[in-house]
Amino acid sequence: MEHAQEHEACLEQTQKYYVERPIYNQELLQGQLRRRERTSQTLRQKIAHSCRCSSKKAKSHLYSFLPILKWLPRYPVKEYLLGDIISGISTGVMQLPQGLAYSLLAAVPPVFGLYSSFYPVFLYTFFGTSKHISIGTFAVISMMVGGVAVRQVPDEVMSAGYNSTNVTESLEYYDARDTKRMQVAVTLAFLSGIIQLCLGLLRFGFVAIYLTEPLVRGFTTAAAVHVFTSQLKYLLGVKTNRYSGPLSVVYSIAAVLSKITTTNIAALIVGLTCIVLLLIGKEINLRFKEKLPVPIPMEILVVIIGTGVSAGMNLSESYGVDVVGNIPQGLRAPAVPEIQLIPALFVDAIAIAIVGFSIGVSMAKIFALKHGYTTDGNQELIALGICNSVGSFFQSFPVTCSMSRSLVQESTGGKTQIAGALSSVMVLLVIVAIGYLFEPLPQTVLAAIVMVNLKGMFKQFGDVAHFWRTSKVELAIWVVAFVASLFLGLDYGLLTAVAFAMITVIYRTQSPQYRILGAIPDTDIYCDVEEYEEVKEYPGIKIFQANASLYFANSESYTSALKKKTGVDPRVILAARRKAQKRHAREIKAANALRKKATNDVEASVKHEIANEELPVNGKFASADASVQDVSPDEHEHFVEPKTNIHSLILDFTPVNFVDSVGAKALKSIIKEYKEVGVCVFIASCSGPVMNELTRLNFFDNTVTRELLFHSIHDAVLACQVR
User: What angle do CA 148, 149, 152 make, to 5 degrees?
Assistant: First the structure.
């Protein structure tokens, strides 16, 4: 009872509005409104305006291109510096082992992972707009780079020229192979950076929207499987070739299984121990995140412990465990990438550029939303382009944002890009001063670091259950992205996934939902009649809505659904009318023939009676058959002409964003066909841009005027009722 009273009180307090105005169609509405005067500029004027320079405009462009000039002078040292220092150190101790580990994925010597963890990270401080993402090596991008490097410089081709078992020649083989693969990786960085830079300067940051979240998550999950299988040989200490291209993951697993009997037990024990330690460290960091001032840097601890154990027990010589090997001290002189490789790498560079940008900008948006600031997608493209292209001159391979390091940088108190700069300085100290100390580091330790960092990506398998509940179409995108990337390779898989995602968009616009609307009594609110019991249709009026635009791909289905939903098909009615007219004509013809025959019979009877000298009674022949009377066509017509039970049809254009020439022709055909059967078609809630498109397409003429277009559904309904 109390609940009912509260409900009634709530209804009484509900605000109401009363509006009294004319019924507006577009002709009447446009006649009462005055358009703002707009002075259109010629192309020459537009170019001149865009090229015009002022001190304010130059300053704005400079701040946009170099965001550091805007935020660094306002940097609150007392509030931010301590947090940035702690965050920079925490991120740096992750940056170092991950740089070494991900170089294995990129199929280049470990020192190039350190270069890639320094130059791009430092450059991003000047050009990036995100305060929290950590630029540097990332598993997915490194895996894509490694796939291209192995394809261009396969082990089989290189080993053909080195058949000797001599140790010196074996070392020369590895040096030559690594040098060529490094050239491929560096050229990829240069080319992908140039592509990102050009897209950013041309304001093409929107290209990332074509990589939807289900697509990216399915793609990165498949990449995680690729990465995991590629690290098995390092974990087990077996010697196998590296594969790239379609079915590479299958070939890699088969190669490892074929050499499983040659497993290096010492390498396996070290690797498994590191995996256990890393998992325990991650679990402790997760459970005690609130209590720990900074996360336990388990990765750098594992690297230090692994290096110490390897050096102390001489694992390389005594047990045959593969180690990192030579790490040159100091920085290399800048060198120009191999330009002649560009034609062979162009398509791969496009994929790497777009995937790298998509991952980076998505993480940047997440942190910006969380901390209440904005990022510029186009400037992020420019920043990544500069990081990759400039870094390539210093032997770095393609980089992007690392999810795990970004989370650490944000959670340890990082406030600005200063944290990233400090992490790069830590890597620089290792390169310049103490890099040689990590030469005994077993490769199985780096494999363990890579595998454990895939834990978050493997959790994305849970997306299958999530998308199954929420959206079957997004589930299909995820599955196609995963399966295609897993078996076709990351490059062809990405292309396949993007193509499939676009097909789903076309499918959804081709197969929209169609509804018949009715009014909630005593309101101007219109809802689906099949969904709500209270919603009622007005007699003789049908309101049709499709939740998609009207264009070449769905114009035919729109027309078919309209006829099906309204129950009125003008072609069927016209065909029935023509059939009725033909039957009517046949009946008239038969009636006339019958009348003619009756007349002939009467004349014959008259002649016979005259011959018998019989006279008519009162001037008429009493014996004439009743059927000889004149037959009127109306008296023989027994077929009722087919008619519709509606007189007005309203098309709700609220969801329509655009109409093309095919859609306009279909719309005009609908108006014409329904007019022939006595049904007037009106269009309601047509937006201004759609109106302009219809005008440009010459939709309006003497038969189809703007009087058929109404500002709202209710305006159209009221107009139909007074017709």
Answer: 85
Residue 460 CA, distance from chain mean position: 17
Q: Can you give the pLDDT at residue 631?
A: 42
Report strand pairing: 680-684 vs 709-710.
parallel
Q: Which two tokens stand for residue 276?
A: 């256990």
Alpha helices of 161-206 — where are they, by DSSP H? 167-201
- Distance of alpha carbon 378 from alpha carbon 400, whole angstroms: 15
Helix (H, G, I), strand (E, B) or coil at 358: helix
Task: Tell me: do 125 and 217 sit in the same domain.
Answer: yes
Q: How far is residue 322's CA from residue 328's CA, in Å, rounded to a whole number?
A: 18
User: Given a cut of 50, is residue 484 above it in pLDDT?
Assistant: yes
Instruction: List helix spans (H) across 512-654.
Output: 555-566, 570-611, 633-636
Cα 675 to Cα 668: distance, rounded to the nearest angstrom = 11
Residue 598 burial (CB count, 10 A): 18
Q: Is residue 524 part of a domain?
A: yes
Q: Do residues 309 and 251 share a domain? A: yes
Per-residue model confidence as pLDDT tens digits over 429-447: 988 888 788 888 888 998 8
Residue with tokens 């692994």: 306
Locus of tokens 């490059």: 491
Calculate mean pLDDT across residues 590-606: 67
Rounded alpha-carbon distances, angstroms, from residue 153 to 5, 120, 232, 385: 80, 25, 21, 25
Structural domain boundaries, residue 561: 514-570+643-722
Q: Could you tell me if 412 and 545 lie in one domain?
A: no
Mean pLDDT in residue range 536-557:
89
Say how many CA atoms lie within 13 Å of 596 toward its Cβ.
6
Please state the domain count of the chain: 2
Which tokens sit at 442? 């077993």
**DSSP E strand stretches across 526-581:** 526-528, 541-546
Three-state secondary structure call for residue 605: helix
Candidate from 288-292, 514-518, 627-631 with smallest mean pLDDT? 627-631
* Residue of higher predicted confidence among 102 and 625: 102
